[in-house]
Amino acid sequence: SLGCLEFRRVLFRSNLDQRVASAFRMQFFEIDNVRASQPGHVVDAADLATLGWRDLNRFATRDDVLRARSRFEAALKVDPDSVVALQGVGSSYQIEIVNYLSSAPQSLVEPGKKALKRAMELRPDVPENLLPWGSLLALSGQPAEAMAMYNKALELSPNYAFAHLFVARMRIWQGRFAEAQQEIDKARGLSPSDARLLYAVYSLSATADFVQGRDDEAYRWAMRWAAEYPNSGQPYAMLAAIDALHGHDAEAAAHMAKHRELLPNDSIAYVMFLSPSTDPVFLAQRARLIEGLRKAGLPD
């Protein structure tokens, strides 16, 4: 299992096409997973990290995130310098925040940063450490530092599709919408069949169209997003907001009810926290989104 984990790290840093690397990583992940799950097998630190990542990588619910974090923390008791487990702890906080799973998201930023900072100290050359670290920096009011992390990830691995999406999100917040679309297109071209990546593509595509005033296009993206990921609450918020802004009150209420059923912790304050910006164009469109969400029934 330790050998598989190290192979995945080496493979990620190589110049192989990202799709080939992803296929190999998933193969070794499944081998580790089967081994760790066998009856009678004595679970070690590497197994705990593997099982933790299994929990996080399946469109995690809050229970998945908390279970994953406990596995990573148990692994760190055995091996305090496990980069895989440190990255897992930090990522679990970042995922809980950005997926609207927490009732107090601001309180999770510093614990996430603490774990990821240690992972970065041990392995500053691992792109998978850089993205969640950058995300938490952005939420801490450090957009320039966050962008530096995303750019470094792309320097280390130019075909890292998720890094392009993190850049795209930052470009949206900066009001640089054409550049954001270029990054979204790059990411989708690099990994067109990755379900987790497509989820983010749909989210960012809907957002990019909405903030440019293209509500019909944003609505179509959100409908596709909801159809392909029916257990996610996030697309229903976009649908509810657009419905409310256009006077479709019954549809807005239905979509908001679905959203709040799936993501009961969401609020206007949460939406604002997860979209930090100083760009006046973006902020004007964020205000329009908030108007729609409030009309549809999202609480402050």
What does this protein structure show overall?
This protein has 300 residues and is mostly helical. It contains 16 helices and no strands. Helix 3 (45-56) packs parallel to helix 5 (83-98) and helix 5 packs parallel to helix 7. It is globular. Residues 1-28 have low confidence and may be disordered.
Output the keywords.
300 residues; mainly alpha; disordered N terminus; globular
Shape field: globular
User: How would a crystallographer describe the biggest sheet?
Assistant: none
Structural class label: mainly alpha
Low-confidence stretches: 1-28
Mean pLDDT: 88
- What share of the residues does DSSP label as strand, in percent? under 5%
What is the element string, with H for helices and E for strands? HHHHHHHHHHHHHHHH
- Give the terminus-to-terminus CA distance: 47 Å
- Number of beta strands: 0
Integer-rounded radius of gyration: 19 Å
Which range best describes the helical content: under 10%, 10-25%, 25-40%, 40-55%, 55-70% or over 70%?
A: over 70%
Q: How many helices? A: 16
Structure at a glance:
The chain has 300 residues and is an all-alpha fold.
Show the helix and strand layout.
Elements: H1 2-13, H2 18-37, H3 45-56, H4 62-78, H5 83-98, H6 109-122, H7 127-139, H8 143-156, H9 161-173, H10 177-190, H11 195-211, H12 215-228, H13 234-245, H14 249-262, H15 268-273, H16 280-296
Helix pairs in contact: 1-2, 2-3, 3-4, 3-5, 4-5, 5-6, 5-7, 6-7, 7-8, 8-9, 9-10, 9-11, 10-11, 11-12, 12-13, 13-14, 13-16
